[in-house]
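Table S2 (continued). Query chain:
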Amino acid sequence: MKRKTFFYLVILVFSFQIFAQDKWETYTNIEFGYEISYPTNWEVIEAAPDTNNQADWAGNILFGEQIQMVTFLEKDFQLWQGQFQVCVIENHDSISLHEWVEKNEPTDIFDESLVLETRDTTLSETPAIFQSNFGFDHTAYNFTALHNNLIYSISFEGNSPNDDKEIEHKEIYSRMFSSFRFMK
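Corresponding output:
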């Protein structure tokens, strides 16, 4: 009984810390028609096309058919940095959402699938596909939707034994995901 009480107390303290700091901002992207809320103590990094052919952090560079990518990164961290990403991708072939997800399934170097789970869901009241992916030492969550013939991909970490603030991060990711909405 004492363990359960302690566990619930820890959850309550973490939840209180998140909502007590209730300082959130809204990132709005007019061009791609969406908005999302994020904690004010996280930085916003918008990727740009690679023009100098020099090594850089992947969050700074657009790859392939990506036309917009924004990464929200926790500024103050000790061991494991919170990260949440929204990516907009061209759908040149105008294929369906299911076809696009199947065509872009994450694989390892042996071309084996890294997908642990796939299911239909929604993103901002739009049909979407959820995937849980193997990430070596963590689980990555990805939500993909087709809106105005563009692919929207939202990704963040699911479970990680390395994340010293895993409960807090999950609360933040959940709130960010729930705040995402298409504007047009």
